[in-house]
Hints:
Strand order of the largest sheet: 7-6-5-8-9
Family: Belongs to the aspartate/ornithine carbamoyltransferase superfamily. OTCase family.
Enzyme class: transferase
Protein name: Ornithine carbamoyltransferase
Structural class: alpha/beta
Bound molecules: phosphoric acid mono(formamide)ester, norvaline
Shape: globular
Catalytic activity: carbamoyl phosphate + L-ornithine = L-citrulline + phosphate + H(+)
EC number: 2.1.3.3
Number of helices: 13
Largest sheet: 5 strands, parallel
Order of helices and strands: HEHEHEHEHEHEHEHEHHEHHH
Number of strands: 9
Oligomer: single chain
Amino acid sequence: NSVFQGRSLxxxxxxxxxxIQYLVDFGLHLKALKQNHIPHKYLExxxxxxxxxxxxTRTRSAFTTAAIDLGAHPEYLGANDIQLGKKESVEDTAIVxxxxxxxxxxxxxxxxxVEGLAKHAGVPVWNGLxxxxxxxxxxxxxxxxxxxxxxxxxxxLVYVGDGxxxxxxxxxxxxxxxxxxxxxxxxxxxxxxxxxMDLANGYAEKSGAKPLVTSDIAEGVKNANxxxxxxxxSMGESNWEERVELLTPYRVTMDxxxxxxxxxxxxxFMHCLPAFHDTETEYGKEIxxxxxxxxxxxxxxxxxxxxxxxxxxxxNRMHSIKAIMAATAGNLFIPAVPEI
Length: 340
Ligand code: CP
Ligand code: NVA
C-alpha cells in the first residue's frame, strides 16, 4: 500500500533521508488536522502495545493519545507488569505480543532488545528510546525546527552537553540526513563514538550538512539557530560526580546564547525534557543537597525565556508519533502531504 507499511522504526537509519523528511511533513499535516478537529483514524480497530522498561511522561502520553486519536486501543505494559526482563525472553514475548497486537512500542536499555522484538514480533516495532537512539523524538524535534524556521536545510542546531547519549547520537545522525548542521559541543571524553560520526558524515556528504564535534564552546555555538541540551545523567546512569565536574562549563546560560552572535529572531532553545533547571522536584532537592547545584544543564532564566520552545516540542511528540504509527501500521493509504 505504501513504502512505509509493515516497517519498524528502531533507529533513524532504518529509513531514508526522504522518508524521514516525509514523516516530519506528515506530522505537521496531522497536527493541522487535529487543530481543525478533522478525524484521522488511520489505525481504526487496531491494538497497540506500549512497553516501558524505563519511566516516561511524554513518550507514553504521546503514544497513548496518538493511538486513541488514530482509532486504536493502546495497552500500557510497564516493567513490573509483564514477564519480559525476568521470567520470559525477548523472543517469546515478541511472538506472543505479535499475535495479539498490531504494533509494539518499546522503551528500554539495550538497542538489541528492541531489535530482538522487531525480529520476532511480525508486526511493526517502534523504538521509544534506548541507550543508543531516540528516533521518535527526532520527528518531533525537526517538526519544531521546521515550524520555527520554515525549512530545515542550512539550519544550525547546536547540541551542548553529554555528546555520547541517545539524544546526541540521534540529533547528529538525523540532522546530517536532513541537511541540518548539527554541532556537538561536549568535553573530549563525551564526544560521540567514531561509528556514530562515520554514519553522520556519510549522510552529510549527500545532504550538504556540515556536522561539527568540538569541546570549544565559542567555536561550537557560533551562528547557532537552535541551542539544544539534555540531562547530564541519563536514565540508567549514576555517574553524577563525574558529569557535574565535566559538564558545568557546558550549562546553557544567557551568556552562551549571546555568544552565538545570532539575531534574536533566528535563535531558539530546545530540550527533549525532562529538564533540570531548578530545585522544585524531589530530584532537584537531592542534587542541591549533594552537589550544591540549583541548576544543571540549563538555567531557569533560559528555560523560561522568549527563546524557549521545549513545550511546543513536547506537544509535537504526539503529532509526530501519529505520523510514524499511521505510516507504518496504518490501514489506509497515506495521502500526499498537502501544503499546510
Ligand atoms: N522526551 C522524552 O522522551 O520524554 P519522556 O522520557 O517523558 O518520555
Ligand atoms: N538522555 C535522556 C533522554 C530522555 C528523553 C535519557 O536517556 O534519560
